[in-house]
Design brief:
Oligomer: single chain
Number of strands: 85
Strand content: 35-45%
Helix content: under 10%
Largest sheet: 9 strands, mixed
Length: 1175
C-alpha cells in the first residue's frame, strides 16, 4: 500500500522500524496492532490527515485504531473518507448520519492524556470483483432476448452506478401489451416506473401520463457509487438504494412483466419506437450489472451476440476536478487571485457550480477600486442576488433564478464586458447591469464568504459545495489551494462535497413535510392534525370522554384514538346528554332497508362502510369500556334459522370478516335472539320471533355487545324469496362509552413494588404522561434500559422531577424544580417527550423545559429490557412483586381542590369527575369562567319554576364563611364584571311579595347594594366601596347573608332595618330590566334598570342557581328569557388576564353577615392563582 499524510514527524520512508501503519486481513486479528511504531502529525498541523492507497479496489469491512506505541499520543475521534479514484472523496457515515467515529482513550492501557495526536491503524477487508461500463450520455447497452418477448413473474436486477449528472435513464423495457419498466435518475433521485397492466387501455394511459410508482434516494449525482437492487415477485416489489428499502405493490392488473425484444441499459436508443418516451441518457459509470443472474457487462466485454453495446467503454472515466465544502456559516471562505493578464483591462469572468440547502449565503465578493466599490453575488431567499455598490448611497442590483437551495448542482456565470455585467444561472436567460465605467478588481476574489477585515458582512457565509471554479476561463486547482500554493482559505473541506439530505428518510411523522438547511431540518405539520417539532403530538383528544372532561358539549369531534401513534384522527359524534358519554360511529346504511327475493344460494348482502378506517375502529372499540350495536329485524315469513337443522338462513360478519349467527344479548356461539333470553318470544318453541314463520309482522331486535366482534361489517339475508316473504333491516351506528386510558391508576405500597410491560417502542420519538401523588421524597416513575441506551423519569428529590435518556450521545438530563414540595399527597402532572429534534419536560403548570438534540448526533433509542413503571430494572427483583393494586382510592378525599367553585367531586372506580351542575363555572374542574358580553338592550331573566323560598336552599355554605350546623344562608350570590359605563344595573332579584334586591353602579362608579325586605318605601342602601369600579378591570363580588356567627376578619358593620326573609322569589334579571319601573321607588334604581349594563358579566351564582350558565346551555328552556344580543365570550378570562398584567385583580368580597339585625361587610383585594387539572 501507499501511504500519504498531511505533515508528519519525519518522512514516511524514515520511519522504518517505528512504522507499522497498515496491513490488510481477510478476517479480524485482534493482536495485529500490538507492534511498535505509529504516526503523529506536527503540532503545527491544524488539519491532520492520513491517506492510504490500497492500489486496487477492495471491500473494506472494518477499521481498527490504536495510539502510537510507547507514547502518550492517541486519537480520540476521527472521520473516515473513501474514494476509488483518489480525487473525489465521500465521508462514510454510520447509522443516523453520524460521521465521527470514536477513537481511543489511551495509547496502550493508560488513561491519562497529556500528549499529542498519535495513531496506529489497520484495515480489514477482502478482495472485490468489479465489472464496469462507462456511458458518455449517448451510449447504451442492449440485452436482446432469444425470443420475441420475455414474460417473467419474478425479477431480480442489481447494479451499482456513479454519476455527476442529475438526469439519465439507467434501465428501460416495454412490451406491446402495455407493460413497462423504467429506472432513471431525475433531479438526483431515482424514479422507478413499473406497470403490469395487460388491459387494452393501458397503452393509452401510459402514453398520456407517466405514472411514478416510487421515488427513492437523494443526492445520487455525487460521483460516488450507489447500489440499487430491484426484487419483484408478481406485483410485490422491493426497491433498495444503498441502505434504504422501499416496499410497494405495483399498479396494473397483471402478475407478470412482459417485455418485447430487449432491455436497454444507460438510455433509450430508439426514440421513434411506439410507446417509448424521450429522456436524457445516463452519463456515468455502471458496475456489476445483473439481470436475473446474468452479468450484462461481462457479456458485453466478451462481445456476446445477445448484447449490443454502442459507444460503451469498460473503464470508468476520471471525474472532473474535485469539489470543496464550505463548513461554517460564519467563517468559511476561499480566497483566489485574479489572473488579470488573461483578460482585457476592466473585463473579467467567473464561472462555478454550487449546491446547498440554505436559502441565504454569500457566494462571491469582488473588491473594486476605488473603495468602497464592491461586487457581491449572494443567495437571497433561494435566488441569486447581484449587487454592485458604486458608492455609499448608490448601488445597482439584479435577481435571477429561483429555488436554488434544492440541493442540486447549479451553474453560475458572471461576466463583465463592454461596460455590461451579465449574470446567468443554469440555462436561464441572462440578466444584465449597465456600467458607466469599467470595473477594476482590487486584490483577491472571495468565494463563499469574506474575512471580517476585508468586507462588512450583511449576509451569512455560504454553507454548501462548490466545484469547477474558473476565473477568466482559467481552472482553479483546489489541490494547490490545499497545499498552500494558491490563494487562502478557512473552514473548508477539500476534494469532497459533504452535503447530506436530512429529509431522507423523512423524520417528520404523520405526513409532515420536511424542509432543511445545511445543518438542520424542520417539519411543516399544517393540515396533518399533529403538532410539535416532528409532528408527533395529536391536536385532538383521544376520545369523547376526554372532550367531556375539558368541558365540551355534544357534537361532531375529531378524535385520535391512539394519540401520537400511527393512526390518524377520525370524526365521530360525541353524545354527552346522558350520564355516560357515547361515541357514535355511523355507516353508509342507516336508513331501514326492505328486502325481498333473497335465498341462501342468492342472498341479499348489505355491506356496511363506516366513517372510520378498520384500524381506527379497532382502536376505538378496544379502548372503550363498552360497545354495542343494535340490529333491528322486522320480518314476515322470513326466518333467521332453518327449523329443520338449525343452520342459519341469515348471518352477519364481524370486524375480522368472520361469520356470526347470534343475534342480540347472547354470547358468541349461541344461535338465539334476545326474545329467547328474555323468555318472551311469540312462540316459545322457537328461539327467535321470526322463526315462527308467520304471515304477520314480527320483530327480532337485539343489541350486540361482544366487543371483540364489533362492529358489524356485513349482513346476509337469505329467506325472503317465498310468497309473502319480506324483511326490513335497520342497523344502528356503533356506540361506545368509557375510555380505558383515563384514570388507569395503580397504587404502590412498597419500595420494591413495580409494574412491568413489553419494551417501549421509542426509537425515534416517544411521549410519556401521567399523574402521581406520593409522600415519598424520591422514586423512579418509569425506566427502560438497553445495552447502553436508557430512558428514565423519576422524582429525584421532594421538589425535583428529572427526565433522562441516552441514545448514544451521552446522558441527557432535563429537570424541573418546583418551589413547593411535590410529595404532598396531591395530584401532580408530568409529561416527558423525546424526538429526534428535541426533548421536553412539563410538570404541572411550571415552565416547560426544552433541550435540543445535537445536529450530528445519534437519533435512535435502542431499548431491550422490559418497561418498568413504579420501579427500576437496575435492581434485582422478582418479576412479580407484592404491594401493587389497581386504582388509587380517595381521589376526592386526597385533595380539597380537585373541583372548584361549588363543583362536587364524585368518586369513580378509577378516578373522579367534577359535577359542575350547581356551579356557575364550567370545565373539567369547574374553574373555567362562563362569560357573556352585554350591551344596552341585553338582559337575561331566570324565572324560578315555582314560588321559591331561599330558606329551602340554605344547605350550600359560603366558601369564605364558617357556619354551624344550624345556620342558614339566606342569599349567597357571586359574580364577576367589568365595565366602563355608568350608571349600570348588574343584578336584580324580585319576589311576588314586592321585595327586591338590586346591585347597581352609581354614576361615579361606586358599588351600591339595595335591600328592600319590608313594606316600608325606604330600602336599605349599602355602599361598601366609594372607589370607581367602572374602570374596565375585572371585579369579583360575593354577597352572603347568614343569620348567625360573624366572621372574625370582618372590618365594617352594617345594620339592616329588617331581618326578614325573601319570600316567593319570582325572577332574577341580569342587565336591563323590562318590567314596570314603578316597582323600584328610588329613582337611582329606576335609572340603572332602564340603562341596563354594557360590559362583561361572568360566572353568576345565586344559591344553587347559575342563571348565566343556564342561559347559554339551555336557550330553549321556559325558565330562561333572553332579550337583546347576548354573545358568549371569554371576556372574563381576558379581563382577568389584563388585570393581572396591570396591578393585580381587584377581588371584592362582600360578606353580609347578620346577628340580630346587624350586617357586617368586608371588602378585600387580592391576587389569586388557579390550579387546573386536565386529563
Amino acid at each position: 500500500v501507499n501511504i500519504l499524510a498531511s505533515r508528519q514527524e519525519g518522512s514516511v520512508l524514515g520511519f522504518q522500524n517505528r512504522w507499522h501503519l497498515w496491513s490488510l486481513h481477510v478476517q479480524l486479528s485482534p493482536s495485529s496492532l500490538q507492534v511498535a511504531g505509529g504516526w503523529s502529525p506536527l503540532v503545527t498541523d491544524q488539519e491532520p490527515w492520513l491517506q492510504v492507497d490500497l492500489r486496487e479496489q477492495m471491500e473494506v469491512t472494518a477499521v481498527a485504531t490504536q495510539g502510537r506505541y510507547d507514547s502518550w499520543d492517541w486519537v480520540r475521534s476521527y472521520v473516515l473518507l473513501y474514494s476509488d479514484t483518489g480525487r473525489g472523496w465521500k465521508q462514510y457515515r454510520q447509522e443516523d448520519g453520524v460521521g465521527r467515529f470514536s477513537g481511543n482513550v489511551n495509547s496502550e492501557a493508560v488513561v491519562v492524556n497529556n500528549g499529542w495526536m498519535g495513531l496506529r491503524v489497520e484495515v480489514y477487508g477482502c478482495a472485490y470483483k468489479s465489472y464496469v461500463a462507462d456511458f458518455d450520455g449517448r451510449s447504451s447497452l442492449l440485452y436482446r432476448f432469444n425470443q420475441k418477448s420475455m414474460s417473467t413473474v419474478k425479477d431480480v436486477i442489481s447494479l451499482r452506478f456513479k454519476s455527476q449528472q442529475a438526469e439519465g435513464v439507467l434501465l428501460h423495457g416495454e412490451g406491446q401489451r402495455g407493460d413497462y419498466i423504467t429506472l432513471e435518475l431525475h433531479r438526483g433521485r431515482l424514479d422507478f416506473y413499473l406497470n403490469l397492466d395487460d388491459s387494452s387501455s393501458s397503452r393509452q394511459r401510459f402514453s398520456s401520463s407517466r405514472r411514478v410508482a416510487v421515488t427513492v434516494g437523494s443526492l445520487l449525482d455525487d460521483q460516488h457509487w450507489h447500489t440499487v437492487v430491484i426484487e419483484r415477485f408478481n406485483k410485490q416489489v422491493n426497491l433498495s438504494v444503498d441502505s434504504h428499502t422501499h416496499h410497494f405493490a405495483t399498479r396494473g392488473e397483471g402478475q407478470s412483466l412482459e417485455v418485447d425484444y430487449e432491455l436497454s441499459f444507460g438510455g433509450i436508443p430508439l426514440p421513434g419506437k411506439p410507446g417509448t418516451f424521450l429522456r436524457k441518457n445516463f452519463h456515468g459509470c455502471m458496475e456489476n450489472l445483473y439481470y436475473n443472474g446474468i452479468n450484462i457487462i461481462d457479456l458485453a466485454k466478451r462481445r456476446k451476440p445477445q448484447i449490443h453495446s454502442g459507444n460503451v467503454t469498460f473503464q470508468c472515466s476520471l471525474p472532473q476536478l474535485g469539489a470543496c465544502t464550505f463548513l461554517s456559516s460564519t467563517s468559511s471562505f476561499l480566497s483566489l487571485p485574479s489572473p488579470t493578464a488573461t483578460a482585457p483591462p476592466g473585463d473579467f469572468s467567473v464561472r462555478f457550480h454550487f449546491r446547498t440547502w440554505n436559502a441565504d449565503g454569500l457566494l462571491l465578493s469582488v473588491p473594486l477600486n476605488p473603495e468602497p466599490q464592491r461586487l457581491d453575488l449572494r443567495l437571497s431567499d433561494s435566488r441569486l442576488h447581484l449587487t454592485l455598490q458604486t458608492s455609499v448611497q448608490q448601488k445597482s442590483e439584479i435577481f435571477t433564478g429561483h429555488a436554488l437551495n434544492d440541493g442540486l448542482w447549479h451553474a453560475v456565470r458572471l461576466d463583465t464586458k463592454n461596460l455590461q455585467i451579465t449574470l446567468s444561472v443554469d440555462k436561464e436567460t441572462p440578466s444584465t447591469v449597465e456600467l458607466w465605467e469599467k470595473l477594476e478588481i482590487k486584490g483577491n476574489l472571495y468565494f463563499g464568504g469574506c474575512p471580517a477585515v476585508e468586507c462588512q458582512r450583511s449576509t451569512p457565509a455560504f454553507q454548501g459545495c462548490m466545484q469547477l471554479i474558473f476565473i477568466n476561463n482559467q481552472t482553479m486547482d483546489l489541490s494547490h489551494v490545499q497545499q498552500g500554493l494558491l490563494g487562502n482559505y478557512n473552514e473548508l473541506q477539500f476534494h469532497t462535497c459533504n452535503i447530506r439530505d436530512r429529509c431522507l428518510p423523512n423524520l417528520c411523522e404523520h405526513g409532515g413535510r420536511c424542509s432543511q438547511t445545511w445543518s438542520s431540518f424542520s417539519c411543516d405539520c399544517s393540515g396533518t392534525g399533529y403538532s410539535g417539532a416532528t409532528c408527533h403530538n395529536s391536536i385532538y383528544e383521544a376520545s369523547c370522554e376526554a372532550y367531556k372532561l375539558i368541558g365540551s358539549s355534544s357534537g361532531f369531534y375529531s378524535i385520535d384514538p391512539d394519540g401520537s401513534g400511527p393512526l390518524g384522527p377520525t370524526q365521530v359524534y360525541c353524545n354527552m346528554t346522558e350520564e355516560r358519554v357515547w361515541t357514535v360511529i355511523t355507516h353508509n346504511s342507516t336508513a331501514p332497508l326492505t328486502i325481498q327475493g333473497s335465498s341462501v344460494l342468492k342472498p341479499h348482502i348489505v355491506k356496511l362502510n363506516y366513517s372510520t378506517t378498520s384500524p381506527q375502529l379497532q382502536a376505538i372499540v378496544e379502548g372503550s369500556e363498552h360497545c354495542q350495536q343494535e340490529v333491528v329485524y322486522n320480518c314476515r315469513r322470513s326466518r333467521l334459522f332453518n327449523t329443520k337443522d338449525g343452520s342459519p338462513l341469515s348471518w352477519w360478519l364481524d370486524r375480522s370478516g368472520e361469520r356470526r349467527s347470534y343475534w342480540g344479548g347472547f354470547l358468541p356461539g349461541v344461535q338465539q335472539c334476545s326474545c329467547s333470553l328474555e323468555e318472551n318470544c311469540v312462540d316459545m318453541n322457537y328461539f327467535c320471533n321470526c322463526d315462527a314463520d308467520r304471515d304477520t309482522w314480527a320483530n327480532d331486535s337485539g343489541v350486540l355487545s361482544y366487543k371483540e366482534h364489533l362492529p358489524v361489517t356485513q349482513i346476509v339475508i337469505g329467506d325472503t324469496n317465498r310468497t309473502g316473504a319480506q324483511a326490513v333491516l335497520h342497523v344502528e351506528p356503533l356506540r361506545c362509552y368509557g375510555d380505558k386510558t383515563l384514570w388507569n391508576a395503580a397504587s404502590f405500597y412498597q419500595e420494591s413494588s413495580y409494574l412491568y410491560f413489553p419494551t417501549l417502542q421509542a426509537e425515534l420519538a416517544s411521549d410519556i404522561s401521567f399523574y402521581f401523588k406520593t409522600s415519598s421524597p424520591s422514586g423512579v416513575f418509569l425506566e427502560n434500559l438497553g445495552l447502553k441506551h436508557f430512558i428514565r423519569v423519576e422524582l429525584s428529590s421532594p421538589s425535583l422531577v428529572t427526565f433522562s435518556f441516552d441514545v448514544g450521545n451521552g446522558p441527557a438530563v432535563l429537570s424541573v424544580k418546583s418551589h413547593l414540595p411535590l410529595n404532598d399527597r396531591q395530584w401532580h402532572y408530568v409529561r416527558a417527550e423525546r424526538n429526534v429534534k428535541e426533548a421536553s419536560l412539563q410538570v404541572d403548570q411550571l415552565p416547560l423545559r426544552f433541550m435540543e438534540a445535537p445536529a450530528e448526533g445519534y437519533l435512535r433509542l435502542r431499548l431491550s429490557s422490559q418497561l418498568f413503571v413504579g420501579g427500576t430494572a437496575s435492581q434485582q427483583r422478582a418479576k412479580m412483586t407484592p404491594g401493587v393494586s389497581s386504582g388509587c382510592p380517595g381521589y376526592c378525599s386526597g385533595s380539597s381542590s380537585l373541583c372548584h367553585n361549588r363543583g362536587r367531586c364524585i368518586e369513580k372506580s378509577s378516578g373522579y369527575i367534577c359535577d359542575c351542575s350547581q356551579s356557575a363555572y364550567g370545565g373539567t374542574t369547574c374553574d373555567q369562567e362562563v362569560s357573556v358580553s352585554f350591551d344596552r338592550e341585553s338582559s337575561v331573566t331566570y324565572a324560578f319554576q315555582e314560588p321559591f323560598s331561599v330558606m329551602q336552599n340554605g344547605n350550600s355554605p359560603a366558601s369564605s364563611v364558617s357556619t354551624e350546623s344550624l345556620s342558614r344562608a339566606r342569599e349567597d350570590m357571586a359574580f364577576s364584571f367589568s365595565t366602563t359605563h355608568t350608571p349600570a344595573m348588574l343584578l336584580t332579584l324580585s319576589t311576588h311579595s314586592q321585595q327586591y334586591i338590586a346591585i347597581t353602579l352609581a354614576k361615579n362608579g361606586s358599588l351600591q347594594i339595595w335591600y328592600h325586605l319590608k313594606k316600608s318605601p325606604h330600602p336599605d342602601v349599602l355602599s361598601p366601596s366609594s372607589s370607581n369600579l367602572a374602570d374596565g378591570r375585572l371585579h369579583r363580588i360575593r354577597i352572603n347573608r347568614v343569620s348567625s356567627n360573624i366572621d372574625q376578619d370582618v372590618h365594617r358593620k352594617y345594620t339592616l332595618s329588617s331581618d326578614a326573609e325573601l319570600l316567593l322569589i319570582r325572577s332574577l334579571t341580569l342587565g336591563k330590566v323590562i318590567s314596570k319601573f314603578s316597582y323600584y321607588p328610588r329613582c337611582e334604581v329606576r335609572q340603572a334598570a332602564s340603562r341596563g349594563f354594557v360590559g362583561c358579566l361572568s360566572s353568576v351564582q345565586f344559591n344553587h342557581v347559575a342563571p348565566l350558565k343556564a342561559a347559554l346551555t339551555n336557550r330553549g328552556s321556559s325558565l330562561v328569557t333572553i332579550r337583546g344580543p347576548l354573545v358568549q365570550s371569554n371576556c372574563g378570562v381576558l379581563a382577568d388576564s389584563a388585570s393581572h398584567t396591570m396591578r393585580g385583580v381587584a377581588f371584592a368580597f362582600v360578606s353580609l353577615l347578620v346577628k340580630s339585625q346587624d350586617m357586617v361587610i368586608s371588602i378585600n383585594s387580592a391576587v389569586f392563582g388557579k390550579k387546573n387539572i386536565s386529563i
